[in-house]
Design a protein that fits this description.
Strand content: under 5%
Distance between the termini: 85 Å
Shape: rod-shaped
Order of helices and strands: HHHHHH
Oligomer: single chain
Radius of gyration: 28 Å
Number of helices: 6
């Protein structure tokens, strides 16, 4: 025996099923997105890791300049290249660190630019290495990696 269901009732059931599926999909999408999104603490840790890498790059450059490494004063511009890479990485980290005031971030980058300009003539001096070490320590402090 065949049961006849009026077309209006079938259409209503189809619309209700579509609405329930839409709402359920939206709820599941929001929950999935929230569960996979990084927490603020994870985002801060990622930015701090970027800053730690910048200060590490600078400290390695400082050690090489104190040791009088040949690549720093040779024709390849090793110190300038390392400082340019550190500048790009620092700029990215500062762009993702809203807790650092723009004025302080600009001051750090200005000091780094000053070191880039001074890299060629002073690449092997102790004063240049000390300036790099101070900048690395200030970057660590600004990003909360060490106490002020």
């Amino acid at each position: 025996m065949a049961v006849y269901i009026p077309q209006a009732r079938r259409r209503r059931r189809l619309l209700i099923a579509a609405a329930v599926a839409f709402v359920l999909g939206g709820v599941l999408g929001v929950l999935g997105g929230r569960l996979t999104a990084p927490t603020p603490a994870e985002r801060v840790a990622a930015v701090q890791e970027q800053a730690r890498q910048v200060s590490s790059q600078l400290r390695v450059l400082s050690l090489h300049s104190q040791a009088g490494a040949a690549s720093l004063d040779g024709g390849d511009g090793g110190a300038a290249l390392a400082l340019q890479r550190a500048d790009a990485d620092l700029g990215r980290a500062l762009g993702q660190a809203p807790w650092i005031p723009a004025q302080r971030g600009n001051a750090l980058r200005d000091r780094l630019h000053g070191l880039e300009r001074a890299a060629a003539p002073q690449a092997r001096t102790a004063a240049f290495a000390a300036d790099i070490d101070r900048l690395a320590a200030d970057i660590d402090t600004a990003f909360g990696l060490s106490a002020p």
